[in-house]
Structure formats: structure tokens, C-alpha cells
Amino acid sequence: MIILVAAVAKNNVIGNKGKLPWHIPEDLKRFKEITNGKAVLMGRKTFESIIGYLGKPLPNRENIVITRKEDYKKTLSPELFESERLVEGVQIYSSVEEALQKHKTEDIYVIGGAETYAQTIGLADKLYITEVHQEIEGDAVFPEIQTAVWQESARENHEKYSFVEYKKK
Questions:
Q1: Residue 97: alpha-carbon gap to chain centroid
Q2: Can you tell me the distance from the alpha carbon of 1 to that of 133, in angstroms, rounded to the nearest whole number?
Q3: Within the chain, which residues score under 50 in pLDDT?
Q4: Confidence (pLDDT) at 83
């Protein structure tokens, strides 16, 4: 299965200048519960944002990074390497297709960013969306969730956000 996990504002914004434009501790906790022990697929900018925030890849997950940058490994911080190889739990591919082919026997949790979501929403089986109940200024957006394709299967409402699950029709 391919599962997209995202927090999305009313105007579909998911990020601004490489960062989440909000801080919702309950969403971060839910993200960890959903993705812990799983293979997470992300674009290079999302990976670099995580490294900038945590100082390391997402722990207890297989971090699958997509980048078109040739020799991307050479640009990474030395702390991300054990001797001459990338730390365990990080794999780098040049395309979504290549990554999905190499991991076709695993459930893949797509965690961003905008371009990666756009490339994978048509392939996805399920969406875990945190609907942020406000419009936010930002430069990265989530693709529109088409009601002809997606059916809401669960919802948990809160004052400033809702946790929503969608399944492909």
C-alpha cells in the first residue's frame, strides 16, 4: 500500500520556506504513531528540513529520499555517514518510480513535500490528513483531494484541527 500522511490548511498549504507553518503537538504525536517502524518516502527538501530540525533522519523508520541531484550523498553532513556509507535507515533514489520499485513489497508512507505528494497521490491507497482549520500563508501545497476518487472513512474533530482518513473509492 501507498499511504500519504500530511497536515493541510484550508487553502491546501502544507509548508512555508521549508518548515511546517504551525505547531500542533497532537499532530506530531499522531504522525509518529502512524509512521513509527515504517518506510517513509520523502523529497530531498523534506529530508533536509527533518535533518535541520532533528539533526538526524527520522528514527525507527526507513527514510527513503527522492532527489534529482546527482552525487547528492556528497553534499550531506559527515554525521550522516558511518565510515563511507550513509547511516542505516536512509536510502536515496533519483525518482519516485525507482524507490517504489525497490520497495514494492513494503507499505510506503509518503510524508512530503508538495512535489512528492503530487507524484504519488494518484498511486495512493489511503490518506491520513490532519485538516488545519485555518488558511495559512505558504509556498508548498497539497494536491486537491478529489471526492470522486477519495472517500472519507474516519474523522476525529478537535477545535483547531481534525484527523481525517480517506480510502480510495
A1: 16
A2: 28
A3: 82-85
A4: 42
User: The pTM is what?
Assistant: 0.91
56 torsion bin: left (phi>0), alpha (psi -120 to 50), beta (else): beta
> Cell 509518529 belongs to which residue?
32
Question: What pLDDT was estimated at residue 85?
Answer: 43
Q: Determine the residue type at 7.
A: A
Read off the C-alpha cell for 137.
500563508
68 grid coordinates: 534529482
> What is the domain partition of the chain in residue ranges?
2-168
Q: Can you tell me the distance from the alpha carbon of 143 to that of 140, in angstroms, rounded to the nearest whole number?
A: 10
pLDDT at residue 69, rounded to an integer: 76
Query: What pLDDT, in 10s, does the model give residues 40-52?
Result: 999 999 998 988 8
Q: 36-72: string of b/e by CB count within 10 Å (b at 16+)?
A: eebbbbbbbbbbbbbbeeeeebbeebbbbbbbeeeee
Q: What fold is seen in the domain 2-168? A: Dihydrofolate Reductase, subunit A (3.40.430)
